[in-house]
């Protein structure tokens, strides 16, 4: 038997924080790729510390629903899972290349735990960002005449924070689908506050590389970009800012296709997922676009 465990941050303050995790778990559960699909959270129940005890399967694939490699993927999650012999050097990562490592957990030593890198640094996330642009514009062929901004938090405390943003912006730029592609940040240059300054395109899709909609994606970024003076009053999509139409997509992690990235991570670690990827892509492609 094989199990999938999706671990995420969660929040005591934002009840919607865990919604994407549960939604992606449900999608994967429905396609039957695993005998069990479980979720665990740092700030909610069920906790990461207890989740392996809820699993009956002897092969467990743990996929962190996080954007970048860093404190949570390298310290918090391995500690809470009690991974025996964990050493971050086992990943031999440059901040983008963490794949998986196979270990046991101290209190469930009979299980083999395949601990995977975060979803945010996987190449399949590029497709999710593009899908997010399609969803918010209501156009499955969006690109020509549009600019695309991939937005991250950014922080001087963790250099890996910006790497995932730049990685996906570069990959999308290489697709030559959008007229312009720019990586922007909340807490470092170039800043999302000045989004209109970085594009010549009249239409700009803005996709935040965050797992869930919360304080940053629902309040900070819309106000910083000038979509609204007060997030509580809402804003138009698209909204007019300095002569540009801003199509603000909200957190990329709420896109249904994220379930594909979770499956890709598990498959890379050796999980037998059969035709689950094709089924997930087919089901999430049927998700209504804006305006449908």
TrEMBL record:
GO terms for biological process: cobalamin biosynthetic process. The keyword Lyase applies. SUPFAM superfamilies: Chelatase. One of its GO terms (molecular function) is metal ion binding. InterPro entries: CbiX-like, Sirohydro_Cobaltochel/CbiX. Keywords: Cobalamin biosynthesis, Cobalt, Lyase, Metal-binding. Transmembrane segments: none annotated. The keyword Nucleus does not apply. This is Sirohydrochlorin cobaltochelatase. It comes from Haloferax mucosum ATCC BAA-1512. The lineage of its organism: Archaea, Methanobacteriati, Methanobacteriota, Stenosarchaea group, Halobacteria.
């Amino acid at each position: 038997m094989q199990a999938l465990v999706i671990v995420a941050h969660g929040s005591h303050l934002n009840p919607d924080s865990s919604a994407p995790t549960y939604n992606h778990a449900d999608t994967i559960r429905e396609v039957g790729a695993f005998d069990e699909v479980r979720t665990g959270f740092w700030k909610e129940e069920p906790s990461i510390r207890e989740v392996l005890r809820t699993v009956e399967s002897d092969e467990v694939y743990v996929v962190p629903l996080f954007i970048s490699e860093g404190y949570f993927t390298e310290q918090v999650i391995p500690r809470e899972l009690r991974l025996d012999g964990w050493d971050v050097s086992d990943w031999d990562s440059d901040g983008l290349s963490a794949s998986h490592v196979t270990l046991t957990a101290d209190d469930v030593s009979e299980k083999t735990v395949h601990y995977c890198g975060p979803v945010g640094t996987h190449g399949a996330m590029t497709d999710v960002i593009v899908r997010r642009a399609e969803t918010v514009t209501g156009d499955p062929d969006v690109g020509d005449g549009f600019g695309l901004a991939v937005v991250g938090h950014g922080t001087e405390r963790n250099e890996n924070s910006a790497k995932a943003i730049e990685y996906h912006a570069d990959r999308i730029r290489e697709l030559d689908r959008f007229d312009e592609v720019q990586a922007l940040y909340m807490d470092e240059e170039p800043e999302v506050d000045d989004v209109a300054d970085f594009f010549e395109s009249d239409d700009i899709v803005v996709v935040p590389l965050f797992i869930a909609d919360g304080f940053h994606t629902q309040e900070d970024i819309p106000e910083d970009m000038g979509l609204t003076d007060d997030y509580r009053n809402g804003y138009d999509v698209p909204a007019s800012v300095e002569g540009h139409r801003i199509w603000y997509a909200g957190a990329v992690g709420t896109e249904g296709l994220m379930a594909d990235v979770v499956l890709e991570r598990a498959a890379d670690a050796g999980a037998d997922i059969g035709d689950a990827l094709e089924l997930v892509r087919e089901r999430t492609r049927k998700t209504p676009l804006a305006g449908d």
